[in-house]
Design a protein that fits this description.
This protein is an alpha/beta fold. The chain contains 12 helices and 10 strands. The protein has helices at 2-9, 19-30, 74-84, 87-107, 128-138, 152-155, 159-171, 188-193, 203-206, 213-228, 241-249, 266-279; strands at 40-49, 55-66, 70-72, 113-118, 146-151, 175-181, 198-201, 232-235, 254-255, 264-265. It has an 8-stranded mixed barrel, surrounded by 4 helices. A hairpin with a 3-residue loop joins strand 2 (55-66) and strand 3. The radius of gyration is 20 Å and the shape is globular. The structure holds ligand C2E and magnesium ion (MG) (3 copies). One magnesium ion is lined by residues 179-180, 200, 236. Residues 24-277 form the EAL domain.
């Protein structure tokens, strides 16, 4: 709550208070200004069709650079923003920025899909679906060109609510993806009920594919399961050519990872894209 934050913000350094704790407090103090001070930026990481190497779109990944704190990774500030409620204005900003960029790419003739990450908290916002619908309409964006990624663990917080909200979102025509699949604790019974289009295998299973037989077994069987359920399959964390080839051999649909590109600011992404298209003609 605001009162609680107020209390936190007057906490002074005490001997014994560790570095990490101090950083957490500074992040909590700076978070409410992240949107208004225009310190947020999206980076984009290409998603590649495994079969032919085509760029099918990008995932928008949030970056925050605070003047006092420096660069803060999303893994660090998003969980805090979820706790304080700051995730609501942050996500609203992410959605409009990502859709602006998608519109720009479309105007340049790229038939891309934009993937946007949502938190479990966002699924509890009453205006989320309507706001997304309006934003798509205003920009004349075909809803099927937008994917919302929600982590498997976020879906398990309040499954009934999440399922209902995702179904509502999906009815707009957007796609829904389960992110970081394999790290949560969803059962196959739950997976079967989720209104989703895409399953994104967590990078912890993908990174060492070339040297880990057990990871290869897990990935291969997950890909088979997802495909049999009619889902598009995505592997994140593809870092080398061997992983790329193994995933292609196992019929994974879409690949994402440092092997193709790190997440890049829009201008760098455009440069990368030009280069990639030239090399893959
Ligand atoms: P995610 O959605 O699973 O995104 C993939 C993460 O893996 C990104 O980290 C990306 O930079 C990283 N990655 C991509 N390819 C590779 C690779 O080949 N190797 C390795 N080691 N890492 C790779 P990032 O950008 O730090 O984001 C971390 C997480 O923060 C995201 O995981 C997502 O859960 C969350 N996040 C990022 N942006 C947003 C946002 O706008 N909203 C919400 N709610 N969450 C976000
Ligand atoms: Mg994601
Ligand atoms: Mg992921
Ligand atoms: Mg992740």
């Amino acid at each position: 709550s605001a009162a609680k934050l107020q209390q936190l913000s007057v906490v002074e350094y005490e001997p014994g208070m560790d570095e990490q704790h101090m950083r957490r407090l500074r992040i909590l103090q700076a978070l409410p200004n992240a949107v208004t001070e225009q310190n947020l930026q999206l980076h984009y990481q290409p998603k590649i069709a495994a079969a032919d190497g085509r760029v099918i779109g990008a995932e928008a990944l949030l970056r925050w650079r605070d003047d006092g704190i420096g660069v803060v990774r999303p893994d660090e500030f998003i969980p805090l923003a979820e706790q304080t409620g700051e995730i609501t204005p942050i996500t609203a900003w992410v959605i409009q920025a990502a859709l602006d960029q998608l519109q720009l790419w479309q105007e340049q003739g790229f038939d891309f899909v934009m993937a946007i990450n949502l938190s479990a908290v966002n699924l509890q916002e009453p205006e989320l679906v309507e706001s997304i619908q309006q934003q798509l309409k205003r920009r004349h964006i075909d809803p099927s060109k937008v994917t919302f990624e929600v982590t498997e663990s976020a879906l398990m917080v309040e499954p009934e609510l999440a399922i209902a909200k995702l179904a509502e979102l999906r009815a707009l025509g957007v796609k829904i993806s389960i992110d970081d699949y394999g790290t949560g604790y969803s059962s196959l019974a739950q997976l079967k009920r989720l209104p989703v289009d895409e399953l994104k295998i967590d990078r912890s299973f993908v990174q060492d594919l070339a040297i880990s037989d057990i990871d290869l077994t897990i990935v291969a069987s997950t890909l088979r399961l997802a495909r049999d359920m009619g889902l598009t399959t995505v592997a994140e964390g593809v870092e080398d050519e061997q992983a790329w080839q193994l995933l292609r051999d196992k019929n994974c649909d879409v690949l994402q990872g440092f092997y193709f590109s790190r997440p890049l600011a829009a201008a760098q992404f455009d440069k990368w894209l030009k280069e990639y298209l030239r090399a893959h003609k």
